[in-house]
Structures are given as C-alpha cells and as structure tokens.
Amino acid sequence: MIKILIVDDHHVVRRGLAFFLKTQKDMDIIGEAKNGKEAVEMASALDPDIILMDLMMPEMDGIEATRRIKAVHPGIQIMMLTSFSDQDQVVPAIEAGAGGYQLKDIEPDELVKSIRKLLSGENSLHPKATNHLLTRITKKEPPNKIHELTRRESEVLKELTKGKSNKDIASSLYITEKTVKTHISNIFSKLEVTDRTQAALYAVKNQLAWKDE
Length: 213
Prior knowledge:
The chain is of the alpha/beta class and 213 residues long. It has helices at 11-21, 36-46, 62-72, 87-96, 108-119, 127-140, 151-161, 166-173, 177-191, 196-205, and strands at 2-7, 27-33, 50-53, 77-82, 100-103, 124-125. The chain contains ten helices and six strands.
C-alpha cells in the first residue's frame, strides 16, 4: 500500500482528496494535516511514502515544511498540490526538495498517475513547473559538469531524462537495478543535484542529448 499524508489548510480539500484516493486499492490515507507545522510532526510520527503538500498555509507554509521534512526524512516523496504556478513558488518548492509539482485543477485520474510516477522514480511535474525550472536554470548559468560523468553514467542520465524508472533503465542498458542506483548516486554527487528532476533538468540545460543513437 502507498501510505499518503494529505496536507492542506482547507478541510474540504483534504476530505475530497482522501475520499477519492481511498478508492484506489493500492493507496492508504494515513493522516491529514492542516498546516506545515503539523505536517512536519506527522511525517516523523507516521512515516508516509508520499505527502501531498499545499503551498500557502498558516503557521508554516509548504516550502518550509518540505525543507524540514526532507532534511530529516529524505526518503519521503513530496508532491506540491497547489493553485499557484508562478516561478516564485515553483522554483523554491523544487529547491526545497519537492519531487513533484501539480496544480489543484488536475484531473483525479491524472493525480493518481502522478503519485505512482513519483514513487516509481519518474518525473511528476506540471508543464508550467518544468518551464519555470528551465528558465531559472538558464538564468543561473551553472558550470557544465557533464564532462565529469563516465560514459556509463552519461548513458544512465540520458535514460533518466526520458522519465524512466530504475527498472526500465536497467533493462535498456542490460545492467542491474543496483548498478543503476550506484550510477545515479554518482551522477547526483558529480552534478551537485539532489534528485532525478534536478538531474534531468541539468542535462537539458547543458545539452546532453538523450535521443537514441
């Protein structure tokens, strides 16, 4: 079962999400929090697989809550589920550690797919969020460290930018999932990124081609 913690300051939103997600046979709503402070406390107490995090909330917003949760529980996946798509919200949320960013007008079935994609290691970003991140990366002009990757690490990164899971990457490159995890860890370290989304965006910015040879 996918253990889900719902965080939103509106009771109706929390109840609506919980009602729908409970209809999924592989999902279990283990808690609801009405602000970021409660989210931090419940994350430690309940150890969810994924947190659906609102952005603007009283006492502690979603960005600060995400930063604190990821600092202590890096394995918990956090998806921002908000009405805001401005760059000023998207970029700080991803930098804080959110692995997904979706808008509240998302279709219910698409939300379910996004949750499963995030937990399987695939990208789960709304197109507007992706565009904002690319714009921010372009402005920052980070040093190109792609050349520091080995040939195999470059191949793994190319597959990662396609949104493939570790299992799919292993199958494509004829290596084990354990080896894929090792390569991805090395990629994160060399590129100085913290998750798959940032690595993929880094590859795009620095023109690492991912088309099949």
